[in-house]
């Protein structure tokens, strides 16, 4: 198990190193000068040159990269050019809405995707299978911003059941904040459930054809016991994979949904940073998102050994 863990950690560190290089280069290749945007149209060439020296943007790219990586290795993601605060603090301020939204949404996606995928596999070729497959196809095709606007129009404007945007006042309770997150979580959960439905259906179909499932039925076990104990348990590896990847993608991909619902999350922070060419925020945020994605994958690999002990034996 230790060898398995060290091997995965080594791969994760290599991926993060590659991501750090790509993120740094891509931010510098983008058009626009952050200093010119920061100082405004009235700034003189001398003011811009002085500010570039102040923020270290006058140094060669290799020097800037080495200095940035040195800060990252010390746990410092840099100082935001526009917010005038450490990037770490800016991320922590915006982390709660994004984290709650991602967890809320992936819970909705799992509650929809796993039962529907199992039903479609058990009743393969029936009207239920056709309906579930059609809904999954629609869910994968509908743009999130359009679906979000439709839900706002129905449940916030016409019915008035939920807030149309925002995250509540600073002194709002957790329940009130979750109420603000319900509509955006429904958008992400319903649309991402399509992938979970397809993976669950395919995985369960594979298991239903196994000999031990036919043997369990021949012994007279109840269908519910067969499905839960013998089918779902053995189909969990791909399902756990897609659930983990869905959570990782939601944490890093809530930009559109947070913009539509005006949520003060990490996605909104990234959009504003890109518009302002705030290099430290862009670099730090993308690196953190990549790290979350990589370590969620690592957690999934470790969870495999719990779900399927055969993987633990093979890794020895």
Descriptive notes:
By secondary structure, the chain is mostly helical. Helices cover 78% and strands 0% of the residues. The chain is built from 15 helices and no strands. It is globular and about 85 Å long. The mean pLDDT is 81. Keywords: Cell membrane, Membrane, Transmembrane, Transmembrane helix, Transport. It is a multi-pass membrane protein. Belongs to the binding-protein-dependent transport system permease family. Residues 95-304 form the ABC transmembrane type-1 domain.
C-alpha geometry: globular
Per DSSP E runs of 2 or more residues, the count of β-strands stands at 0
Strand proportion: under 5%
What is the alpha-carbon Rg in Å? 24 Å
Q: How many helical elements?
A: 15
Q: List unreliable stretches of 5+ residues.
A: none
The oligomeric state of the chains shown is: single chain
Average pLDDT: 81
The SSE order reads: HHHHHHHHHHHHHHH
Largest sheet: none
Tell me the layout of helices and strands:
Blueprint: H1 2-29, H2 34-39, H3 45-54, H4 61-73, H5 87-122, H6 127-141, H7 144-158, H8 174-208, H9 211-218, H10 223-232, H11 236-252, H12 255-260, H13 266-276, H14 279-307, H15 309-314
Helix pairs in contact: 1-14, 5-6, 5-8, 5-11, 5-14, 6-8, 7-8, 8-11, 9-10, 11-14, 13-14
Overview in brief:
Helices cover 78% and strands 0% of the residues. The chain is mainly α and 316 residues long.
